[in-house]
Write a structure and sequence with these properties.
- The protein is of the alpha/beta class.
- It is built from 14 helices and 14 strands.
- The chain has a seven-stranded mixed sheet, with helices on both faces. Strands 9-14-13 form a three-stranded antiparallel sheet.
- The termini are far apart.
- The mean pLDDT is about 95.
- The structure holds pyridoxal-5'-phosphate.
Length: about 400
């Protein structure tokens, strides 16, 4: 069978691949600890569950407006104003089946072959592939671990060419947890203004910040930034609602209208039931979000301490999100479970074989010296995982 040429240049999401390998081992009865998945282990907030059930019983099960119901978009507008100080009319908002889908619509609506789109690395796995699918060229801009994996304005400026059209900025970052403060964002926004870049800001981990940090949306740092930013967010991570598939985007109306066109010919809209549940979550579940964030903060303490004290491993503690991204270069050349490791990929494979621990190799995020562990799992799993790692690396 001949497949489309665009498929030859993209990979299946590596996080799904690792997860599949871990599940296959588990199906054989092997006791695998899976640290590969970016999915909170908490249940959906009660208000959202109730709203979803009522939607089914009330037969809210038909097609909705392509861009999402007006009620949901009003709830999103209220959230963006309350939390981010951003004013959007409902018609400048698009609800999608997951933030991944909002991002894909934005990339499809904005970029063409010949355009370069900057992606700071380490990056979330889907950005380069989505950009490639649009026909544009992802340009990876490495950040420095010594700078906390944060892109500087100077690095951004140096990466721009006459073909550069956009920047994909994600903070708190998956996989590093890096987060920018208002001053750093203002400097990045100033380069975006000077270079006339559109910014796609993936703010999906906004609510998961540690050590009293607060979140600033890059769209809020200046009028100019507001006019060139598409903010993407969703309920998957903050509200532990991954399976409901509900994300959203807000931005200049012209861009959001173009995204809605893409959506109208691809996914149409998020499930009607999910829209009702997300509306309830956004309106009514701040307390649940805070409780979950507090749990993540406790787990982060334990995993940072545990991973950071492993021999040959160093770690920049994450400012937000629920991942650690340890540097494992100190293990290269050593044997783990009978095999010599020379890359993040090797370490991930060796840990699965020797310690029955699934982690994602840094190669998936654009670096070769790291692995990613998610701490969106119970404290007991985290402690057991650290014990296994200590044994495997002893
Ligand atoms: C940075 C980032 N953006 C977007 C998403 C996708 O979220 P959703 O479940 O809403 O599609 C993820 C999920 O892993 C993510 O880590």
């Amino acid at each position: 069978m001949k497949l489309a040429s665009r498929i030859a240049h993209i990979e299946l999401s590596p996080t799904f691949r690792i997860n599949a390998a871990a599940r296959a081992l588990a199906a054989q009865g092997v006791d695998v600890l899976d640290f590969s998945v970016g999915e909170p282990d908490f249940p959906t907030p009660p208000a959202a569950k109730e709203a979803g059930k009522a939607a089914i019983d009330g037969d809210v099960t038909k097609y909705t407006a392509n861009e999402g119901t007006l009620e949901l978009r009003r709830a999103i507008a209220a959230k963006l104003l309350r939390d981010n100080g951003l004013t959007y009319a409902p018609d400048a908002i698009l609800a999608s089946p997951g933030a991944k889908s909002s991002l894909s619509c934005a990339v499809m609506a904005l970029f063409s072959p010949g355009d370069e789109v900057l992606v700071p690395s380490p990056y979330w796995v889907s950005y380069p592939e989505q950009i490639r699918l649009s026909g544009a060229t992802p340009v990876v801009v490495p950040t420095r671990e010594s700078a906390g994996f944060k892109l500087t304005a100077a690095e951004l400026d140096a990466a721009c060419t006459v073909s550069t059209r956009g920047l994909l900025l994600n903070y708190p970052s998956n996989p590093t947890g890096a987060c920018y403060d208002a001053g750093e964002l203002a400097a990045i926004a100033e380069v975006a203004r000077r270079r006339d870049l559109v910014v796609i800001a993936d703010e999906i981990y906004e609510k998961l910040l540690f050590d009293g940090r607060t979140f600033t949306s890059i769209a809020s740092v200046s009028d100019d930034a507001y006019g060139r930013t598409v903010v993407v967010n969703g309920v998957s991570k903050s509200f532990a609602m991954t399976g409901w598939r509900l994300g959203y985007a807000a931005g200049p109306k012209e861009i959001v209208d173009a995204m809605a066109k893409v959506q109208s010919h691809t996914t149409s809209h998020p499930a009607s039931i999910s829209q009702v549940a997300a509306q309830a979550a956004l309106a009514d579940s701040e307390g649940d979000v805070r409780r979950m964030a507090a749990k993540f903060a406790e787990r982060r303490e334990v995993i940072v301490e545990g991973i950071g004290s492993l021999p040959g491993v160093t770690l920049v503690p994450p400012a937000g999100a629920f991942y650690v991204y340890p540097n494992v270069a100190g293990l290269f050349g050593r044997e783990i479970g009978g095999r010599t490791v020379r890359s993040g990929q090797d370490v991930a494979e060796a840990l699965l074989a020797a310690a029955r621990i699934a982690v994602v190799p840094g190669e998936a995020f654009g670096t070769t010296h790291h692995v990613r562990l998610s701490f969106a799992c119970s404290m007991s799993r985290i402690r057991e995982g650290i014990a296994r790692l200590q044994a495997a690396l002893a």
